[in-house]
Write a structure and sequence with these properties.
single chain, mainly alpha, 68 residues, 4 helices
């Protein structure tokens, strides 16, 4: 389990439409625990805290790239 694994999941979710559908099938606004459970289902294990840290890092990097 790591922030890096959570980042991998974020990237996978960004490009995999079927994975997005699986996440959103129950709710259009899933709880963070749903992300963690889905990650585990696809072999990417991380905690809610690691997902939060990964999200923060992902957005910071995007901000640097797109707002420079």
């Amino acid at each position: 389990m790591s922030v890096q694994t959570a980042l991998q999941f974020i990237e996978k979710l960004r490009v995999d439409e079927e994975l997005k559908k699986r996440l959103l099938i129950k709710s259009n606004t899933p709880e963070l625990e749903s992300f963690v459970k889905l990650g585990a289902e696809v072999g990417l294990r991380f905690t809610v805290e690691q997902l939060k840290a990964a999200h923060k890092q992902d957005w910071a990097m995007r901000w640097l790239v797109y707002n420079s």
